[in-house]
Specification:
Residues 23-98 form the Polysaccharide export protein N-terminal domain. The chain has helices at residues 2-11, 73-86, 125-131; strands at residues 35-40, 48-51, 57-60, 64-67, 95-99, 105-109, 115-117, 143-150, 153-160, 170-173. It is of the alpha+beta class and 178 residues long. The longest helix is centred in the middle third of the chain and has 14 residues, at 73-86.
Length: 178
């Protein structure tokens, strides 16, 4: 019986993948396509939503282009504040940045409704699969493949149902062998 379990583990597409690392599951870093809601005290014309462009920037009144891709929301607040201080436009700028609509994620493979799904904060692999209609009867349940972009590189990892997902992730549910 142990030989069958070992054989099944070796032949699984997930067998050779490393688990999702803590580093790639840490605080979300903004990417092109994400929407930010920016409020700047005393600069009313800047209070609106901004979509991060393909170059990783947003264009703010008075500051022009600000590079934000790869930063957390708090880091974006600090970068905008530094820009106002450096240009001597505001002495003590009060900046609020909130995520608006973040990029969707994708679920493919052995789920009932594969495709693009809107991301919600705190989603796990299980909630993503549920949003995709749940597992099919042929699905290998419990572990999936997650493809995530980390520092501009695609990283393939295996994940359990309680792994947190991020915007832009691609989740693949494989067919079970037995």
């Amino acid at each position: 019986m142990a030989a069958f379990a070992l054989l099944g583990a070796c032949s699984s597409p997930l067998g050779s993948l490393p688990p999702v690392s803590d580093a790639s599951a840490s605080e979300y870093k903004l990417q092109p396509g994400d929407e930010l809601l920016v409020t700047i005290q005393d600069v009313a014309q800047a209070d609106r939503s901004y979509i991060i462009d393909s170059g990783g920037t947003i264009s703010l009144p008075l500051l022009q282009e600000v590079k934000v891709a790869g930063l957390s929301v708090r880091e974006v607040e600090n970068r905008i504040a530094e820009g106002f201080r450096a240009r001597e436009l505001l002495k003590n700028p009060i900046i609020s940045v909130q995520p608006g609509a973040l990029r969707p994620f994708y679920v493919i493979g052995e789920v009932n409704s594969p495709g693009e799904i809107n991301y919600r904060q705190g989603m796990t692999v299980l909630s993503a699969i549920s949003a995709a209609g749940g597992y099919t009867y042929r699905a290998q349940e419990g572990q999936v493949e997650v493809v995530r972009t980390v520092n501009g590189q695609e990283v393939r990892s295996k994940a359990s149902e309680d792994t947190l997902i991020q915007p832009g992730d691609r989740i693949r549910v494989y067919e079970r062998w037995f």
